[in-house]
Design goal:
Blueprint: H1 7-35, E1 46-50, H2 56-65, H3 72-81, E2 91-95, H4 101-110, E3 116-120, H5 126-134, H6 141-148, H7 151-156, E4 171-175, H8 181-195, H9 198-207, H10 211-224, H11 231-243, H12 254-261, H13 271-274, H14 298-305, E5 314-317, E6 325-328, H15 331-347
Antiparallel strand pairs: 1-2, 3-4, 5-6
Helix pairs in contact: 5-6, 6-8, 10-11, 10-14, 11-14
């Protein structure tokens, strides 16, 4: 029996071996293309930011610039096959450690972006609100500031340009990075409306306040103390003063005087400051100022809604600088307490 292969058989075997090698090579490359990690994220997760209107080249440039992409050719090849190059969706996307091309492209193509935590703390001026809210978002802070300075926009949300700051409640919000200025304003209004439940509105009415008036007084309370346990008592003092308005008693809140002067370096309010002619000088005007002097926190708002019912009309910072206050309902006693505080200021050379 002749065991020798014919030339034709040898050629066929050669072709088979060659094709097998090519197939194995192709299969291995395709497997690598789909399933092998292709992004150099070693420690923390990386977030890819794709601006509104961005093209595919912008995505690749960002990955390349930040040295995240390992094999650009394989990414481009698979992005073309999966139809992502013509289907770019803006947003903030998480690139996890050991993520492969296929997983990331599916996420990018679906627009399944990751929300960020927007931490908004109290602000004293509208420009600070715009800056802090837009700092980590795509929204333009100048455009946002223009919106809250626009009378018609403010009116649409139930405010005016003076009290629009009441709408912004310091908190942490989950939001998409590519939110624009108008949508950001809508979102803040929604949060405001959600915050002011029927129960809170009812409590405000029982005091004789609107939600806006509650926020204005809360902004003053929050400026007087950062001690949450003391805020309801201070709120009670101010409400007592407002109830005594018929007898000529004014709110007399030092923080409003400082706000009217827009000089936040003032550490000690003097007689000259108290004579300043501004709409926020509650030593001269009756009742609440026309708007808040900051964006009051939830604790301050709750302190006004649940104010302590007391008979105090006066308070001053304790001379031990603990941050707490001493309260009284007698003016002469108040002057004695105030003198102790002034002497403490003099000792520390605070002018």
């Amino acid at each position: 029996m002749n065991n020798k292969l014919t030339k034709k058989q040898q050629i066929l075997i050669g072709v088979f071996i060659t094709l097998s090698v090519l197939f194995a090579t192709f299969f291995f490359y395709f497997y690598q293309l789909l399933f092998s990690p292709n992004f150099k994220v070693e420690k923390d997760d990386y977030y890819l930011l794709i601006p509104t209107g961005a093209k595919y080249i912008t995505v690749v440039d960002s990955l390349r610039k930040n040295k995240i992409l390992d094999d650009e050719l394989s990414f481009n090849f698979l992005a073309k096959i999966m139809g992502y190059q013509d289907h770019v969706i803006p947003g903030r996307y998480l690139i996890g450690r050991k993520m492969n091309n296929s997983t990331l492209i599916r996420i990018l193509r679906s627009g399944k972006q990751t929300e960020l935590s927007l931490v908004f703390n109290s602000a004293r001026l509208k420009k600070e609100i715009a800056s802090r809210l837009c700092k980590n978002l795509e929204a333009d802070s100048t455009q946002f500031l223009n919106l809250i300075n626009d009378p018609e926009t403010c009116k649409k949300y139930g405010f005016d340009t003076t009290n629009i700051m009441c709408m912004f409640i310091p908190n942490t919000y989950k939001i998409y990075w590519n939110t624009n200025a108008e949508d950001l304003l809508k979102r803040m209004n929604k949060e405001y409306l959600d915050f002011w439940t029927e129960e809170k509105i009812k409590k405000a009415k029982e005091i004789g306040f609107s939600p806006i008036q509650v926020s204005i007084l809360a902004s003053i309370v929050g400026s007087e103390t950062n001690k949450n346990d003391e805020k309801p008592r201070i709120a009670g003092v101010y409400i007592n003063r407002m109830k005594s308005a018929e007898t000529g008693f004014k709110l007399q809140a030092d923080p409003t005087v400082i706000y009217g002067l827009k000089d936040f370096t003032i550490k000690r309010v003097t007689r000259n400051h108290l004579l300043s002619n501004t709409p926020y000088n509650t030593y001269l005007i009756k009742g609440l100022p026309p708007g808040p002097i900051n964006t009051p926190g939830i604790a301050s708002i709750d302190a006004v809604l649940n104010f302590e019912k007391n008979d105090f009309l006066y308070f001053v910072v304790k001379s031990d600088f603990s941050g707490y206050h001493v309260f009284s309902n007698n003016y002469q006693e108040h002057l004695q307490n105030a003198r102790l505080y002034w002497e403490a200021l003099n000792l520390r050379k605070i002018k």
